[in-house]
Amino acid sequence: MQEIKLKGLNETIYYDECPNGLKVYMWVKKDISSFYGTLSVKYGSLYNEFKVGNKNYKLPKGVAHFLEHVKFNEDKDTTAHDYFFKNGCDTNAFTTFNYTNYQVLGSENPTPNIIHLLDFVQNDFFSKSIVSNEKGIIIEEANMGIDDPYTVMLFNHLDNIFKNYDYKYPITGVSSDIKEISLEDIKLVFNTFYHPSNMFLIATGNFNPYELMEAINENQEKKKFNKYLNPERIIKKENKKVNKEYEEIDLNVTNRKIKIGIKIPKKSLKYDDLHIRLYTNLLLKANFGNTSDFKDELLSKELISGMSCMCDIFDDYLIIMFTIDSNYKTEIIKLFNEKLDNLVIDEKTFKRIKNANIASLILDYEDVEVVNSIMQSEILNYGDVIPNLKEIYENINYQDIVNFNKSLNVQERSILILNPKD
Amino acid sequence: MEYNKVNCDSYNIHTIKTDKFKTTRMEIIFSREVDKDKMQELTFLSDILTDCSKEYTRRKDIAIRLEELYKTIFYGTTNKVGNLFTVSFILEFINPEYINDNKYFKDVLTFPFKIINNPRVKNKEFDIVNFNIIKKRMEEEIKSVKESSEKLAILNALSKMDSNSPSSYRVLGDLKTLNKITPSSLYETYMDLFNHSNCDIFLIGNINMNEAIKIIKDNFKYHVIKLNKPNLLINNNIRKKPLIVSENVNFVQSTLVMVYNIHNLSKELKNTAFHVFNYILASGGILAKLYQKLRVENSLCYGVKSLYLKYDELLIIEVSLDKNNISKAEKLIKKGVKEMLNGDFSDNDLEDAKRNLLFSLKMAKDNNISIINNYLFHHYDDLPLIDERIKLIEKVTKEDLIKCAKHLVLNTVYIQCPDNKDGDFDARN
């Protein structure tokens, strides 16, 4: 077992890999009562088109989320909930664009419960009647999304930003997709992607890492898996231009919202993904965050009542998104365009934000769920946990951010106005 | 974990010393009984008091100072639990052991008092610029309730149940009353808060508590005659026959809300057995009775929500579903409640539910907010502390749960349906 020391944070991650390829990460906190185990499968909603060798497959949208639902059935009469309920544990799961995550949260007997997490996710039981019964439930879940204006708003905006990428489609699929999903689709996905070498397990909380790892190895040795065929997601080529520059829609919102999206080809930035995210966050906080003059002025002039921004990498593109609550669309678009053309950061602000972010890193390693989630993001985004993140932050200097700002082209913009229906 | 209470005449300081967390949390809690006419203005006040002060005139200035204090969090919030209304100012900061700065501890701990003791007021009026920012924000928050079908349905169900009951009062109020608030009336409310409230300060973390108490005493001059402890319970009326209301709204899904009174149940059973009862009936996730009946056996919905409002003596069941399934869902919920009354659940169900609740209680010991909350209600209502509650939950019997079911009386069935363009749909047929 390897001990990964997180430099400057006084934390250790225990890491090991099973012979079948399952990677295991463990973070131990002895003075608490709980443990949290998550098993992530690198298969999400974007993977409905994939290829294995020369053979291409196209499945209905929403199949990843559908599989997540039915996966809890261990045989025709038993679900994973039955086991965990008896053990005083809570279990759940979620599906994202890129992966599916199964969880168990408890306070007693971490080893058998985490082993059962592996058992139910790796179990290949599915049946026609279970698939058929689940459809009504998932359609109702998808309809809840249609009633949530913030979900509708996000996917509309992604639709306007991306011409070809599948990020524009709801993770659940819509009613017609869900009705189309068959038992065969589910089995195909399970057999192709639910392989230990396409999964990673993270355990956080109060447990003995050596005991847990030994049990995991024993458990995995007993199971047989076919050879992993390295399926590949088919990624469509995306256009540099946004799909729609401007759109207004009526939605079930009570106050007008303005969304501004910026599409930046990653290759136009000469940085790795980690630095793109760190630099963009610093720059956005300085220009649009709670401490910025720009936001302060918009609030003082009562042009907005609130605004938020986020950035993330979507395959080959860095996307920055603003959500603004305002009734003054013309003025806001004008002011944002001006501001985006003149992004700035002074050295004092840079240092303050950087120090605050470093303080956050220390605080992050406290809660079993937060730590687990941070590790998931790092593994998915960068392939592994980052042992020297604090050091990376500390090494960022003012000139780095100035140079990054110069290389950032924020001209490709998509604006979505959401008007209240009534 | 070491708990101490210090009586400072007009307020109490409760300290909980523990090295479990990397942060320290302080909650300055002003409390009083619910007053419909004052809740909205107190909510406005909690917001404006943490948005600016004499020294920090804009939110931006406060945000900068908080970043300088190593990303300290500071905000104001209000809450209504039964008949208790609280205005809280919350500070969460990184423990001094991680910060190489001698002044940090005093700076961070005095920060909230500097803000709330020195509001941005001139001639007994709050500054108009800050006032308008908060007013706009509240206006939008009030309107946004209509964006969530579930939230809207629950609030409407409580209003229909009894619009004069404090259970139905909305902390945010409405637009009509918001427009009556002025910078000067807000100042009067500020004076009222500081003159007519109970005040308790909770501190949890790994800090020198004696030093912290001294800093608080030196910086918080709060002189009021202590009020009596508020009565937390709301006596909601019972109906001989349930009220059934159906309304149309602009959503795709329908929402069914069923409100039950918990009539005359003993305090002991409300503190322990009713949680177990609710777990088996509805709140225990996919294996709960109502989940099984509605979701697993009939594919009617994604989930069933259940809210146990102990001090309102209400149980609320809420489900979002297709309009054609409302009648079936209502019957299944009633059937589930009846089965609880008949003791139609196994000893295993009971033991499993208890085990899961014990797990939640143990988890609560890992959370600084839950720990403070427990001490707050222990202080106000003698709610047993977590370790004691664990012992009490273990003793709950099947008979206790049947008693809980006997005390349930259906009050209101509220149905929220999509706008009926065809004009011929009756949700209950």
Strand order across the largest sheet of chain A: 1-2-3-9-4-8-7
* N- and C-termini, Cα separation of chain B: 57 Å
SSE pattern of chain A, N- to C-terminal = EEEEEEHHEEHHHHHEHEEEHHEEHHHHHE
Shape summary of chain B? globular
Strand element count of chain B: 13
Largest sheet of chain B: 6 strands, mixed
Quickly give the CATH architecture of the largest domain in chain B: 2-Layer Sandwich
β-strand percent of chain A reads 15-25%
CATH topology of the largest domain in chain B: Cytochrome Bc1 Complex, Chain A, domain 1
CATH architect. name of the largest domain in chain A: 2-Layer Sandwich
Shape of chain A: globular
Strand order of the largest sheet of chain B: 1-2-8-3-5-4
What is the helix tally of chain A? Answer: 15
Relevant terms:
heterodimer, A: 422 residues, alpha+beta, Cytochrome Bc1 Complex, Chain A, domain 1, 2 domains, seven-stranded mixed beta sheet, five-stranded mixed beta sheet, 15 helices, 15 strands, 42% helix, 23% strand, globular, B: 429 residues, six-stranded mixed beta sheet, disordered C terminus
Give a short synopsis of this structure.
The complex is a heterodimer of chains A (about 425) and B (about 425). Chain A has about 425 residues and is of the alpha+beta class.
Description:
The complex is a heterodimer of chains A (422) and B (429). Chain A is α+β, with helices and mostly antiparallel strands. Chain A has two domains: 232 residues, Metalloenzyme, LuxS/M16 peptidase-like (Cytochrome Bc1 Complex, Chain A, domain 1, 2-Layer Sandwich); 175 residues, Cytochrome Bc1 Complex, Chain A, domain 1. In chain A, 42% of the residues lie in helices and 23% in strands. With 429 residues, chain B is an alpha+beta fold. Helices cover 43% and strands 23% of the residues of chain B. Chain B has a six-stranded mixed sheet, with helices on both faces. In chain B, strand 4 and strand 5 form a beta hairpin. At the A-B interface, helix 2, helix 4, helix 10 and helix 12 of A face helix 2, helix 4 and helix 13 of B.
